[in-house]
Amino acid sequence: MNWNEQGIQAMNEQKYEDAAQAFTKAIEEDKTNPTGYINFGNLLGAVGEMEKALVFFDKAIEYDEKAATAYYGAGTIYYKQDQFEEAVKMFKQALANGLEEGDVFFMLGMSYYQLESLPYAQANLQRAVELNEADVDARFQYGLTLAQLELIDEAIDQLEQVVQRDPKHADAFFNLGVAYAYNEELNKALDRFNQALEIQPTHGLAANGKKTIEQALEQG
């Protein structure tokens, strides 16, 4: 294994000091290769050194302006720092340079969601789901975005797929309850709130939803 491979293995084993030493040696061995800088940036991001991580991603881009994973890494840092407009710029650069993967579309969609640019969030989260149908997080966020856009039937379809793939997803059951209530399908709404509470008895929003639906059913 080369130094970068050794560093990644150490990172996966949470041996962060060993990883740092390996990535340092990779950079010393080839100072103009962006890979070592990108890996070190990912390591720094993993241990919470956000500003230092950005320095390494910037250095990687300086040596290779088409280093798509450097833009993606920088985007994740900006996202964690709530700098969503900067995150959007970085994720779009990652896509422009060929990193057309589900994770990139997911993070771009989430950045747009945080900026309340819901149509853009919808488009990118939809693409994330298309590229990785097993990604429950992407499908859940896609469903929430559809609901925010009042595309309720489409939201229900996505959220039902979430709970099929993850039967313990209390928040998905809760949001299904809200969606069915919006559609005035009260018995289905009550069922989904109950399922959320079975999974997470302390789910206060689901408890409130259940109470509201029970009162509505009693009143006929």
TrEMBL record:
<dbReference type="InterPro" id="IPR050498">
    <property type="entry name" value="Ycf3"/>
</dbReference>
<feature type="repeat" description="TPR">
    <location>
        <begin position="136"/>
        <end position="169"/>
    </location>
</feature>
<feature type="repeat" description="TPR">
    <location>
        <begin position="170"/>
        <end position="203"/>
    </location>
</feature>
<dbReference type="Pfam" id="PF13424">
    <property type="entry name" value="TPR_12"/>
</dbReference>
<dbReference type="InterPro" id="IPR019734">
    <property type="entry name" value="TPR_rpt"/>
</dbReference>
<feature type="repeat" description="TPR">
    <location>
        <begin position="34"/>
        <end position="67"/>
    </location>
</feature>
<feature type="repeat" description="TPR">
    <location>
        <begin position="102"/>
        <end position="135"/>
    </location>
</feature>
<keyword id="KW-0677">Repeat</keyword>
<keyword id="KW-0802">TPR repeat</keyword>
<dbReference type="Pfam" id="PF00515">
    <property type="entry name" value="TPR_1"/>
</dbReference>
<protein>
    <submittedName>
        <fullName>TPR repeat-containing protein YrrB</fullName>
    </submittedName>
</protein>
<feature type="repeat" description="TPR">
    <location>
        <begin position="68"/>
        <end position="101"/>
    </location>
</feature>
<dbReference type="Pfam" id="PF13432">
    <property type="entry name" value="TPR_16"/>
</dbReference>
<dbReference type="InterPro" id="IPR011990">
    <property type="entry name" value="TPR-like_helical_dom_sf"/>
</dbReference>
